[in-house]
Design goal:
mainly beta; Hemopexin; 2 domains; five-stranded antiparallel sheet; four-stranded antiparallel sheet; 10 helices; about 10% helix
Length: about 500
Amino acid sequence: MKENSPDPLSEPHLEDLHGQRHNDARPGRPAPFSMERLEIVGGFIDVKQFHVEQDGRARSPHVGITAATESLDLNGDPNGFIFIRNLLGVSDTAAKSTWSIGQIWHGAAGSFADTDGVDSVFPGPNNTVFIVSPTAPHQCLQLSLMDGSRAAGPGPLREMFPGLPGVFYERGIDAGLSMSNSDRGEYVYLISGDQCAAYDMRGLTCRDVSVLSQVWPSQYGELSYVDAALVDSKNNRAYFFNGPQYMEYDWENQYSLGPWKEIQSKWPRLPYAFGGERRIDGFGVLSPAHGAIVFREDEFLVMDPWGLGQVYLGPNNISTLGSGLPLQFRSGIDAISILPTSEYGVYDCFILKGEEACQCRMRGSAPPGNIALEPPFSTGRIADRWISLPPNFKKNVDAMGSLVGADERPYAWLIKGQDVMLFDPRGTGRPISSDTLAQRWPNLPPIYRQHGVDAMAAFLDRGSQTFWLISGDQVVKDPETGQSASLASVWPRLPWA
């Protein structure tokens, strides 16, 4: 049983894919413990990797994954992964936006998954998946991986999986994975603490119970406790997660392929709380007099983008920008875009997150860094704000940048994955042009073609355009030439570089 506090760095969207509203339940964090070592079932665990709550059991730290599974398309073929951290989940194909479990699988809406979170996910027969609650008495729910519908449950874990040793019912199931590709979801390994059970999902019988490290041996250190497990059936790989780290195995032959590594080295685009890299979420340029605003997780700062990155203000909590900013935009935004208005120091501001957009005013005044968001805060679906946008740009965009052109018309770029479009942000969203990143800026470095763009901004000064395209720790200031440099070398005074 792992911690059931939500992701502290981002919040679920308030409206799911089916139009249902969800409350944002956010219980407090557990306190770290101070003992030198902590004994749990199966041995000793490094204290740097765990926390303890009032019942004295080991818990995952505040960075990491509590559950993971392959996702399937409508044909039942693997098409990516879903990573879960308690109340929230994220797809590796749209890793900037987190969702409630009920938004990922609508059959889980209103269940323990939306209130207590998810402790483990493991495959079942007929392209289904089981999710298990983190708190006793443990509940279980079976869902379709293809359409997200509810197949069975919720019901007590003891009744849905009879015949397991008592520890599985007492502390719950930490992780589960199929035994092989040929019998996906019919025979699975279920893991609780250092115990690993081979379970027949068709006959609902436990075939064998062994010590985890014997079933999955490693020459790089004993595998004695995991937070989550994931199978990549396309590449014959199994991954076990522990805090911010993972260990990779040959799935079919069950031997480790290397030591523990940081999650961010394999999946850098995951949110930081899931183990991904800290990265810039949004970047908007006001003017040389007012600087640029940078967003990361639940913080922002104001800096000089033309110089060495001198910080004028912050980092501060996003909530201090304006008391009227809706809650869902105060953490983990997808993009921000800023356009000057006819009034000096006043800007139109668009903030995007998930399916929603917030339009408001941003005011800057002397000295640099003195900025604030002002009402009215107009919030709604991106699809309703710009009704002519292509479907793929109506949610989970990666970056947005805008400027007033030499013709005094507003222009904005939207980037999602490898797609980029130019449009009038004060209009209906009809594309002026649409390309891939490789077509629009063929000289961009490989990282941009592999991982896309985290944030962008554009500015026109005396007829000369300046761009900033940020991907991970790299920034490109002239996408036509594609010359990149590290954030630390471009802005050495920026604390987030």
